[in-house]
Amino acid sequence: MKILVTGATGKLGSKVVEELLKTIPASDLVVSVRNPEKAEGLRALGVEVRHGNFDQPKTLDSAFSGIDRLLIISTFGDYETIMRQHTNAVAAAERAQVKFIAYTSVTNASESKFFLASSHRAREEAILKTAIPYSFLRNNWYFENEIGSIQGAMVGAPWITSAGKGKIGWVLRQDLAEAAANVLTGKGHENTVYELSGKLMTQEKLVSALGDVLGKEVHVQQVDDATYTDIMKGAGVPDAYLPMLVNTQKGIRDGGLEIESNDLEKLLGRPSTPLNEALSQIINQIS
């Protein structure tokens, strides 16, 4: 059985590959990357490296040839770009007669009004139209998304948010990678939707734990969206990124990531990494 991971040199894809290599021979694993030279380390391990560019459909035909199980890691960009790229990938999978597609989606994509959900919903629907067996891995929010705020707290800055009492199911990329690898290598995952989340908590709960790990109090500063925008701009965030950050805060405030689920625990066969341990790992990475 041949398993292929797209985006295998990215932050999530590289971790999925690491997890897969713990349980399957390198000869069973194929990676599809835009820049094969960046995957020479994987080639040295015996992994087959193929050139696959979602903007170049012909490369995807050769990349997906002979593949049984495919993980499509979602791309990022404006709606038109990501839909074109995803449509190309799904069409290539269909032409290659791939037998199973796993796709990294977002929390409650089929119903959520969270600003990222509509594009993921459309991408899920594109896969459904193929009738290829699928698994939608609806990832909640990465702990790693908070690295900037954590770094600020480490040097005494307050935790700035306009998310109010909205709850998030923060989870480490490593846990999500392990879950994805288990779906790709396991049985019984055809036509499934998994809501992959840690325990739901507010910003205050997260920051309280962060203070415990750092050994000092970290203050939470709740502001409105306009003030949040001004603060982020003052901190050097480029104007092009500000709407995304504000939409994230608003989406969290409106409950866009509040989905209770134990799917992650089921796929891992254990609880997700505990809060304090996850924060400690990130702090060690950036220290």
From TrEMBL:
InterPro entries for this protein: NAD(P)-bd_dom_sf, NmrA-like, NmrA-type_oxidoreductase
NmrA-like domain location: 2-248
UniProt cross-references to SUPFAM superfamilies, sorted A to Z: NAD(P)-binding Rossmann-fold domains
Gene3D superfamilies for the chain: NAD(P)-binding Rossmann-like Domain, UDP-galactose 4-epimerase, domain 1
Top-rank taxon: Bacteria
Name of the protein described by the UniProt record: SDR family oxidoreductase
Species for this entry: Lysinibacillus xylanilyticus
Taxonomy of the source species: Bacteria, Bacillati, Bacillota, Bacilli, Bacillales
